């Protein structure tokens, strides 16, 4: 039986992982099914008030990884790494040298290509089994999109357009946010999705803007855009606006003979997805993708004991996501100009880069 260890009780650790783990322990599909993990949940966070607001007894908080190791050894542990991407390599190395192998790592896998190479070396040296948090890849909605593409019902897939918008002023303007650019916040989800649906790709354009709120400015945390050309001929545009007045998580698929629009759940407040194919009515269904992702991940880890063969994972895909984002950020760095005209342009015109790569 496995036991969770959460490193970092911020928004993702406390607000998402801990909540979903509780639901995962009580599988609603079959009351006779043994739980995938046992408790208590151990957490590492140096802030003394990190567990403030959580129900009493929900988590055992420790201030250091060594203190957590005195309560939970590496063998039964599944470690949820919920720290910012800028500290990813350091945290993974500290876990690896202590013998932890089964890791659930928040996206993105690394902050840049250099950090990715270091993590790849750690993975090989210590036999790490890394599952990058990718709920969209485990979502029922994505499964239906795969089936739609494979069926040929609307002909060949020609283009993908992803919109990931949400107002993120409070977190982005904090000095300890930990995300260097708007490319690092939402785009890792959608890039993993488009690579899964349309195959490998190369970047053809990129743009980024600052986040502004009155006199406050956070460089390169406003909006981001990335254009891709897939090896199979599909073109993709991903746009993420962290200064948007409303939330949106949608994917538009353009086929030879029609269009499909997929709407992913906007938050953990409502887990319903919608799919509209052609002129048909919306298909509405529940889609708790993070729960599905963690169930699949714990099941994979349980199938092969620590020290055994590496469980099948999507590491290569997430490594490609990091490389694409790294190329986009490097080409946008230090370049000025305005995005080209068109309905998908980013809405802040100051400190903008638009390049062909």
UniProtKB/TrEMBL annotation:
This is Gfo/Idh/MocA-like oxidoreductase N-terminal domain-containing protein. InterPro entries: NAD(P)-bd_dom_sf. Residues 333-357 are annotated as: Disordered. It comes from the Bacteria. Residues 337-357 have a biased composition (Basic and acidic residues). It comes from Streptomyces laurentii.
